[in-house]
Amino acid sequence: MNKILITGGAGFLGSHLTERLLKEDNDVLMVDNYFTGSKANLEHLLPNPRLELMRHDVTFPLYVETNQIYNLACPASPVHYQYDPVQTTKTSVHGAINMLGLAKRTRARILQASTSEVYGDPEVHPQPEDYWGKVNPIGIRSCYDEGKRCAETLFFDYYRQHKLDIKVVRIFNTYGPRMHPNDGRVVSNFIVQALQGKDITIYGDGQQTRSFCYVDDLIDAMVR
Ligand SMILES: NC(=O)c1ccc[n+]([C@@H]2O[C@H](COP(=O)([O-])OP(=O)(O)OC[C@H]3O[C@@H](n4cnc5c(N)ncnc54)[C@H](O)[C@@H]3O)[C@@H](O)[C@H]2O)c1
After folding, report:
1. What residue ranges of the chain have pLDDT lower than 50?
2. Which among 119, 144, 159, 175 is annotated as catalytic?
3. Which domains does the chain have, with CATH numbers?
4. pLDDT tens by residue, 72-107
5. How far is the CA of 63 from the centre of ligand 1 (A)?
6. Is the CB of 10 under 6 A from ligand 1?
């Protein structure tokens, strides 16, 4: 039987992942500091005895037994990750170090929730995986972009140096139930403005492009 650790499991994506893994009869240990996540996202799953919740900040080491780790802990939208940028970098970098250390000790398979932001402000559209990106190291988004890039570096070095079984997924804008209504991102803005009967805000000249993903499709890809 799988004993699965999910960090950031009380957030938008983490709560869907927790739901999916419990449905498949796994034991799930959900770890979160509830910075942007909430127990309300998991309320419907609480009666399940296979689910355990732990309040914990991933910037500190964690000693548990597990054979699979999904590392999702990190605020995802600019309003949230710019609120405390130093903590954002620590969450990505120290969080990755702590979770990789745990995976090394337990020989657990480990997945990192990375992001399309590793491409920064890309010159190539759409971005192929072999494109290395164009990232500002000192801007107000750097805490997120560079934190996630460093986490990817750590994952691949643990793979090369310690032969860990790693997976890194670069997630593009994902939407669906339980997304934050006020995170300032395009899908939530459009939906909230439409529900309130307000005009829908289009930034710039409206020619921007984004890749969107429905949450069930993303979770399916992560589990596979
Ligand atoms: N939603 C998207 O479109 C998207 C796109 C790209 C990448 N991602 C990545 O996916 C992951 C989940 O994103 P989300 O949209 O569910 O965001 P979210 O903000 O809803 O969830 C993040 C969770 O991590 C928790 N967290 C934050 N810092 C923590 C810490 N130091 N210790 C423990 N828990 C902590 C939060 O409380 C929250 O529950 C993030 O790593 C994010 O970078 C998401």
Report:
1. none
2. 144
3. 3-174+213-223 (3.40.50.720)
4. 999 999 999 999 999 999 999 999 999 999 999 999
5. 21
6. yes
Contact of 159 with 166, CB cutoff 8 Å = yes
CA of residue 103 relative to chain centroid, distance: 18
For the CA of 58, the nearest atom of ligand 1? 32
3-state secondary structure of 120: strand
Residue 66: burial class (beta carbons within 10 Å; 0-12, 13-18, 19+): buried
- 76 Cβ closer than 6 Å to some ligand 1 atom: yes
pLDDT, position 129 = 92
Which stretches within the chain are classed as H helix? 12-23, 78-81, 85-106, 142-162, 186-195, 215-223
Encoding tokens for residue 47?
């009666």
